[in-house]
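Researcher: Structure for this, please.
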Amino acid sequence: MYSSDEIASFLEDRLSGYKCSECLKELDIVGTKTGIVIHRRCGKFMHWSCIDNSFDLPLSCRVCGYFILNGNEFKDLSIIPFISKYIAEMLSNEAQDMTKCIEQQKMVIEQKNKEINSKSAEVARLIGCIGQCEEHLERQKEETERLEKESEQLKENIREEIKELKERFKQKEDEFENKNSEVQELKESLIITEEIRKNMEMEMSELEVKYTNQCKRERNLIYFIAGRGFETEVFLGIPFAKPPVGELRFEKPQPPVPWDGILEAKTLKPPCITHPDVLNLDGQEDCLYLNLVRPKSPSTDPNGYPVMFFIHGGAFLLGTANHANYEKVADRIVSKGVIFIAVAYRIGVLGFYTTGDEVAPGNYGIWDQIRGLEFVHEVIRDFGGDPDNVTILGESAGACSTSVITIYKEAESLFKRSIIMSGSTKAQWVINTRALETSNRVNEILGVSGSSEEKKKKLKELTAEELINGTKKFIGIGIPTDSVKITYFNPRVDGELIHKEIVDDYEGHCEGLEKKETLIGLCSQEDIALALPLFGVESNAKYYPLTIAKAQTFSKEYFIEALNCLLSEGNAFGDKLPEAVEKILSFYFDQRLNYSHNEYLQAYVQLLSDIQFNIPAMREAIQKHKAGHQVYFYVHDFPEMESPLVDGASHASDIITLFGFWFPGIDKPLEGEYEKFVDRFAEVLVSFAKNGVPTYRELTGSKITDKKIPFIQVGNVTELKEDLWPERLKFWDDLAKEFGYDWPGDRLIGKDGKI
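Model: Predicted structure, token format:
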């Protein structure tokens, strides 16, 4: 039995530090005016005043000393048995909890003992291993001491042998001195041998230079020592064709006339005449020369060095083979173990004038490039190169030329692989009727009329200056304005070099060609250099190219106006134009979300980049792959010419990385991260020219497949990515099939759905 005070003391101890579950005030047994309740089920404490009196709870009031249960009042002595039972139950529960806790602690201790035993076994094993290692080291020490003793003995034996050999040599020397007659006979024999060697060298020289007085050259005329200490030799102004002047104007190039003596290839020859002459070049019509840079030391490969044959760009109207900074070429390309050649070719009216028939079919500039390849194939062994390992490398219009040559069957034996940088025969500005339209304007301005033969004859009688002046009347900054056909002169279907089949069924045509390796490349935002003022020269165009002022304020409304203007050219979409415009705007307005500033301008530049470069290049890659060719892809993503308005690497950024900028004083210093980037990009291209696979250190390019275009992205970080712009390619393919017209290729789509 417990007294009322004992129960109160017990409850006070139990309640110490507790708060009422309802009012959250502390529970105080002594002196409280409020009863305290212990819930029979959950054991929570609370004030009597805080609960509902209907609860089935034992209650206690410290004022009157009564306990309350189910509405019945009991004196404190009468409630003691219940409280005793209640306290016993609470103590029993606590005891059970303590028992469970003790059992759990026992289990934990047993587990720890097992772990300790396991660790002890591991320690014992390691101690055993250490003992074995010590024994092994002791054996090694003994073996080392034995070898050192043997080495000392061997050295002693060698010293004895050397001493013996010296004595024998002295003996032989004495014997040799006693045989003067034999020595004299030997000297006479050596003189005869030297005469024979000289005669053989003369014969070999005649054999080596089988194009006597044509390809003979001096060594060490010009040389650069690359940054890695690699020595190179440079040959400038080597003629590969007769001067295309007089009766040879508007004709295919002819092999060069042999020259007398040794050709001094020390200076650059004047470039082909360009228009407009934004680079202040002093061009001339006699311009079919090539420049060559090679390693000074012969190749360790008996076949010779791989050859990279470069074709410059410039919209078939500008540019020159002399733009390449040959000191940078030596350092960045040739030092990696290749021969580099840059070829000149006729451009503008002199390179692509046509009467639209066989009298003056045009394409003379492309024929010049092929003649250059033929010349290289004939003589490159004399320069230490491998004629069976030639890679054609072209950028922009040069890339389009390269693309044309790769599908000309008669040129298959002249090259092994190709690198096509920012250009494609699939682009609408490459193979079209613009050359004929421009030629007709030239005829009109110069007052030339009559039959095709008469037009050609009259134009041959004019000076080159008179011809160029005729084009100046309508050719402004070098590209047509407010038109996505960005050339005045270009290759055309002539039935010999370019067949209509190439336009109608490109993939089918490629199936009939020898399967070769191709590396196709793009800059990440090609049209920065074209959508904004070219070379800083602003035009009177309204939408393309933009002036700087219009670019800075380019808006959604201006985007809509520009697209309607560009799409109206040729009225190809017909009465479906509004619907086509709506779909294109919807797609490219979504693309602006990829940019953080100038969103509409950047989406506009992306649209133009897709139309003129990206989509045609990707289609060429896919169709060549499906025809059985091995095709790789890269994207240059380092902005050589940074624009404050548009992000990304512009058209021509890749070629500037290789050769430096052609404007003096603009080149970036080759240091830090930029030096690493230049080396990465050059290595990707040179590795492909050497082996047919683009690589950089442990990174290896992947061939494109039927479903994806994996590509090497070369920028601040060089990495292999899974698929190139699939949503943009799909959009234009679907649009062409839906409307029956393809804007990037500027051609109607037939029932076969071929693009």
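Researcher: Any notable elements?
Model: Residues 28-34, 39-43, 51-82, 186-224 have pLDDT under 50 and may be disordered. The first strand starts at residue 36 and ends at 38.
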